[in-house]
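This part of the workshop introduces the protein records we will be handling. A record pairs a protein's sequence with a compact description of its fold. Backbone structure tokens are a discrete shorthand for how the chain folds in space. The question running through the whole workshop is how a given chain folds. The record below serves as our worked example for the rest of this section.
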Amino acid sequence: MKRHTKTIVFLLFIVLFSLSFINAGKEHISAVKTTADTLVKPGEKHFKNLKMLTNGGENAEAYFSYDGAKLIFQSTRNELGCDQIFTMNIDGSDVKMVSNGKGRTTCSYFMPDDKHIMYASTFKGGDNCPPKPDASKGYVWALYNDYDLYVADADGSNINTLSASSGYDAEATVSPKGDKIIFTSTRDGDIELYSMNLDGSNVTRLTHETGYDGGAYFSYDGTMIVYRASRPSEGEELNNYTALLNEGLIRPHSLEIFVMNADGSNKRQVTNNGFANFGPYFFPDGKKIIFCSNLGDPKRREFDLYAINIDGTGLEQITFNDTFDGFPMFSMDGKKFVFCSNRFNAKQGETNVFICDWVE
């Protein structure tokens, strides 16, 4: 009887051990799967192999080099008082500050040869960060008059002035054709878009309507431009816009997406939803635009990425985050996709750079 009891106990031990091993294996498999998919939210079917490249501080406006090997972005990492410009490899390695650490910088971009970079900075107006807007104004963007455009070697050396005026010059990007730069300026009083040659010559105004025009990008073939714009209506809305502009401010409460030809002709409005739509970028085929918007949140606090045909049809939600996803860009070959997000941040409000394979 004792021998029989011992046999039963032994068999139960074997069964329990086997079950625990099987369950451990299942848990391991589940853990691996969760780790691989944890950054992708349900419904984000276009993302594969999503990776977070930065961790800490405010990291935004990350853009690919033309060869697709590097990213350039702005960051407040290392307890910087305000944004400076950094580059890194697309796997997040070899992070280097390439601005001079003075003033505030923004809107960086690689030049077509990948040996030079372009960005806006206030450093000639002073080494310190310019003051932030008065909090009593609510959420506003500052249009610092000290912002001018600069070009430098890719390592940050040999800084030269590209474009300067008595007002705000920033938000500059380059045509993939390698012939033109488009940028935003207040040199004529309102906030307008201008184009110029890569050396800063032949400055041409492209927009002429009252309201903010900015954040522009060329299509991959260089024939079209996509941008964000406000069109304040007559009366109180226009008065408020003008009053803020006189203080060097803009309230981005309602921005719509527009497209036009590279020479400024044939302007067309793409979105018409009354929300804050910004950060538009062309798909590689030039038929669609991806952009950031709070159109899905009545309280206007949550921003997701959306895609839309250039004629305004076929709206598709791309991300399903409950905080912020923005600043989207495809690599030149269309295989990689980068954006900035508040998802999975260590501290509330931090924004990080994410990269993934794009799945059609």
In short: The longest helix spans residues 2-37. The two ends are 68 Å apart (CA to CA). The chain is about 15% helix and 35% strand. The chain has two domains: 1-38, 43-358.
